[in-house]
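hey so i finally got around to running the thing on that chain from the lab meeting. sorry it took forever, my laptop kept dying and i had to restart like 3 times. anyway pasting the input first so we r on the same page abt which one it is
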Amino acid sequence: MLIEREEPLDRLIDLARRAAEGHGGTIVLGGEAGIGKTALLQEFTRRLGPGHRVLWGGSEALFTPRALGPLQDMAHALGARMAALLDQTAAPERLFPALLNTLQELPETAVLVFEDVHWADNATLDLMKYLGRRMPVLRVLLVLSYRSDEVGPDHPLRQVLGDLPATAVRLAMQPLSPEAVAALARQAGRSAAELHRITAGNPFFVTELLASQDAAPAGIPGNIPASIRDAVWSRLSRLAPEEREALETISIVPGSVEPWLARTLLGARADAAVDRCIGRGMLLRDGQGAVGFRHELARLATLDQLSPAVQQALHARVEAAMAYAPTALAGALLPRQVHHAAAADDGARVLDLAPQAAAQASRLGAHHQAAAHLATALRYAGEAPKAVAAQLHEDWANEAGLALRIDDTVIEARQHAIALWRELGRMDKVGLNLRALARLLWSRGEVRQAGDCVDEALRELERLPPGPELAMACSVRSQLHMQQSHVDEAVEWGERAIALADRLGDVETRVHALNNVATALLFVDRPGGLEMMEESLALALEHGFHEHAARAYMNLAEYAVVFKDFALAERVLAEGIAFETRHDLDAWTHYQVGWQARLRLEQGRFREAESIAGGVVGLDLLAPTIRLPALIVLGRVRTRLGDADAPALLQQALRHALETGDLHLIAPVRFALAEAAWLAGDLDAAREPLAAVAAMDLDSFDPWALGELAVWWRRCEMTAPLPPATKRAPAPRAAELAGDPAAAAAEWTRLGLPYEAALALTQLRGSEAGLTLARAVAMLEEIEARPAAQLARRTAQRLGVADQLPRARRGPYAAARRHPLGLTQRELQVLRLLAQGMGNQDIARRLVRSPRTVEHHVSAVLGKLNASSRMDVVLRLHSEPWLLSAGEN
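ok and heres what got predicted. didnt touch it at all, straight out
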């Protein structure tokens, strides 16, 4: 019987009803251990009527969690296709969509319960995010339960919960009131005195104490509340020996114990002893016959009274028993076997099992868990042959580099692997690890050391018959040159990598190298780059290299924005953002959205740029480097709008840019600071950031950045001569530098940059100055560029032509905000209703429009969002929620 749980129970039932109507959702159920989450969910699923299918799974407190543990638990109920994919440890890009299709094909409303997700592995967290974002358009209810007292600010679950849609419902379980505790005590025929104070209303604590013979036991501090430990031990002392043995043996296994395992561990007496423990309320049996403690705290209290030696012996028994499991279960049991082998301190078994479990976790995308399994094996590396130890260090460095922060321990593991492989004479492995070490060093900003590393890798690999290791090393060398704008070297090494990859049939290296060469060529405006980038992208998409595809979209979009090819930029950004959103590549998505904001800034669509950039900057959980492109845009657009917070934003952007050491991120911030000071009339303040840019490696700059430096150098009246490299300035910059700002403005207008055109016009002097400044002021006020408009007016005043300017506007500017994706007001209404999960008929009724008209509006919305389905729309809105409010007047 549930007490004081009517409100959350009613909410769960209501959300299940909405899911049955096609408006699925996610429920996050939090509460401390023992608060009654499982009891509530059991009662909820019991009350569901016909037409619902409940799928239940959970995570356990293993040293390293099972990869996709909840999904593994559900496998039997998801059909043969899903079971086969899980057995094959299919990669997430196959497994997750297959699960989605299975759920969509179910004739009933699905209720997925993921219990104890505070213990979830990395792949399960990814699955929760994947499913949670897609719930609004499914007949599925996703329920996630977790212990709120075990999830601190840095727990990985925190970010996943933050990534769930805003529509996700959060329920917090509350302790029982003093009145409820007193009622339970009366039902048990016990005194309620002090019971609420001792238990703080925790239902499990209450029931355990009422079941014990002690009304209110005193205790001492410990990991398990002393009152609960004593209550459990009191109950154990009253059991028959075979019952106590069963409980002690089962307590060694986190989670539940399958019937075959219970019989292997307990022998012929297993069923009778377990049945008696179930009858006494100590154990529960689930629908598949597995048994486990009624509560995790009871298991831990039982385990706590066993000596370390007994615990170690029991772990060894469990691991040995699992070795004889049914063949179909072998893969799923691997993480549990590693847990028990490590707890038994059986180094040989850990060295055998942990790498297998790590490989399985890695295939499922659970790189944190793969690294953890390998770390467990590394504890016994001293007992392993040298080749095994070398491979362990190599594999751990690889998985940790994907899952953890790249720190000195990861670097040292690579270096240790290199040393061991070198001792063994495995120079192919030495070269592979040197190349991987180069990538790690580059990611930390150690560019020179990275170059030395990849050069050493090339020397070692060139002594061997050509193989894929050499091909990728050549491509990495090309990439390092490309990132430093050493174009000829990037092309040379990239072409070598492509030729070798083609000989070997190595498609991935070809994709990687094509991207390097294409980017190098594009940013110096040489022919062939665009075709190579399109081939790299096409191959990445064809072969399912999602991150390579995202990299191609990103580099191509950056090129298109920087080189002012706005038609190409619009297409690539739309396709890239849609692709990355569809595949949950969050870091790539938000970085690319930052460049979409940069495009709107360049186009003079300041309010749209502000809306888009602000949406990314507002996502606090993003890494600073991912937010940086949007942060730079936000600081710059607010400078141009005259907002008071612009200086603080630019200083924040400069701090993060300097941390990256990337000149191509630092320079735009310094240009923005110079522009802000120039607009304020403080030329001394403007000159400092320009001098800092001039001191950089200008040979690595593209022509547009060089032109920007040269023009601001001239506008800010720098006394030093222009740096020679700035002679490569593109046409509009070159025209202004040549003393023809009118021609510069015309070229900016042709390219679609009204702000730049207006600033160029402010530089015109002579008889045409009055009319030209009047035109500049009109253009600037049209796009709400108040500081620049005021500067133009001050210039006109100084030149004595102020009477030719349009009258200054009072109050807010009248410029209408357009939607970033070009949606009309009606289409924006439709988008908001789609976000609520409405179908065409519902939308037609809400807007009082015909279904045919609504169908046209929906089609237009899908087209403008580059979405192929309503689900794609929901996913896009999750990454860019500001699209729902952008464009309002």
